[in-house]
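Bug #77: duplicate submission created two jobs. Keeping one. Sequence:
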Amino acid sequence: MKLYNTLTRTVEEFTPREAGKVKMYTCGPTVYNFAHIGNLRTYLMEDVLEKTLRYIGYDVRRVMNITDIGHLSSDADTGEDKMLLGARREHKTVLELAQYYTDAFFADCAALNIKKSDVVQPATGCVEDFIEVIASLMEKGFAYKAGGNIYFDTSKVKQYHKFFNFKEDDLEVGVREGVDEDENKRNKNDFVLWFTKSKFEDQALKWESPWGVGYPGWHIECSCIAMKYLGEYVDIHCGGIDNVFPHHTNEIAQSEAFLGHEWCRYWFHVLHLNTAGGKMSKSKGNIIYADDLVNMFGVDAVRYFLLHEMPYDNDGNLTWELVCERTNSDLANVLGNLVNRTVSMSNKYFSGVVTGTGVTEAVDQDLKAVAAACRDKVAEKMASLRVADAITEIFALFKRCNKYIDETMPWALAKDEEKKP
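Kept job's structure:
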């Protein structure tokens, strides 16, 4: 299989470290609110990736975290914990909120036929693991204490910006406007590994640590959970393109500093889903939820639209009008027409059971050849995860099948009983 690797920005032949086995990690949701269809598009593409790897013979072990602590409203370690904000909004405890939206997330995944990861680990269950790794980074000189918090020192790694060749001075603080620089940091891109009570006195969840009572930063959880369940190496790390910087950049820095060697070779990122109002996001208020789409169009139509209209390495555009158009033209007209005609003819002329009839006319052989060619073309497209192109080939076959019915069985369309076989 060939994949576009965000780390190298090239399409590469995928080769796992251990023959026949794939260790796959997925950045899971921060469970403070419902996931929108833009979020779920990422998990849908990761689902297709995993299932394709399994189909071609790999033994895949996939791990996903659930962020129920530590993810602040700014990616630059400022603002309030999203979980705490959600708990206040809904008058729940943080753990009640986390459970509610974790259940909602997996209900959405089930509605979209997205397979659940082999391991799903909430961050709150691995705090001791986080403390152990942070202590090791302190001991090795990759972390320091300042203002009561523990920071990772990005100046100590050979190459911090592994995804892109940024210059330090060209980068803004964090990735969002209106973010104030943390004066405790030695370097602009240093990030928090552990917050103590000096950060937020009213933080809901706190743990004892060698550095004081506090809670872990967001970035440390994925590294530790991946190492806990997959070992020292990950073959494919997945996530949305938003995670490239700083989250995945920080994951690489801290993981390789702790391990002392390369951590993950292949990075699989799904790009943005846009609406008429731009990139879909909760802050913009232009979100569309999965259950609304599924209730209106059905799960097959939603999966078809997301997979066919938007390759994972391109931004996608979603409007109600476009979904309606594709549902009517492709699913209702092409596929629906084929299914309805085939079932109707089978029931009317063959009592619902069609057995081999040994047809050998030229038009029959032509259709068989088209079907065989389609199979080969789909396999070729899926070998590089070109899902949209593979679906296009399948629907070309459906169109040819409709044409075949027109060519060979006009009596079925005209209901001409005299020409009944």
